[in-house]
Amino acid sequence: MSAFKTATTVVVSTLVGMLAGGVAATLFFAAANSTAADGPYFAPALAALAVVVPVALMLLPFQLATLVWRGRKRTLSLRAGLVIGAISGLVAGFVLAFAVFASSQQTAGDVLGFAFVGVVQGCAAMFWLGRMVHRR
Fold it and tell me: What is the model's pTM?
């Protein structure tokens, strides 16, 4: 795979993951805003953007490792891509909850919400990456 095709594959799969993660994060923050008794209230889509961009950056090494694996072994199943996406998204969600947002008080629901967003975004990005790799 040429460098341009590789870069295009990574960028498109990252954007697809950000779209899916953005929808999940927007729903999470909308639910959090509706149940909050105190402020401040942030626009759910804006708060979601603050989550999906760091998760996308944390998923990039996993995407590149997947492409290197695909280049050497010449095989990558979609199921393996989903498993890698779920694991990498879970790691990214926990890093986000315990490192990036560690200064704020985290509840179990917040941690699970970040992990869920990470898993959705990771699975979507890796699934799309696998689909694009299979088309080549």
Answer: 0.87
